[in-house]
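>> received
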Amino acid sequence: MGSQNKYDDCSKLYKSFIKNMNVIKVCDNNAYENGCIPNYKGRDTILKEQGASDEIVETAQKSCTGFTENNIKKASAFITQDGMIFFPYAVGMSYAPLIIVDVNGFKGPNKWGHDVYSLELTLNTDFTGSVAKSCYGGCCNTVEKGGITSYELIYEQ
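>> returned
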């Protein structure tokens, strides 16, 4: 029997991901408090720093709730043997097929668009397996000053 909606099997995907990625530490929630992630800024904080209006920040908080600073700290995360940090969009490992990757983990700068990127996990068009692709404009793409989007990193560098 198939999934009821496109997100039903995300928790299975994340469990498989953890099993196959040489994960050495898992935080099922409260990733910051439990030592799985450094103190990342959220999309809301970054927009405020960049001078966005209160209306824009509020819209981002409502439409990109999984990328707010508070929710990032409460999220689940896992650390691989080589130090990379992965955490899913939203609190818990069962929501959307978006994943955030800090390519060098706790080593700095721990900034969006510098060493932290968002990716969307999606099924191949022939349904033979999933692939990670960059979030071009969507996925609540977050970039701090001087950084680049995951799209630019993958396709334009």
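>> Helices lie at 10-20, 43-49, 54-63, 69-74, 150-156.
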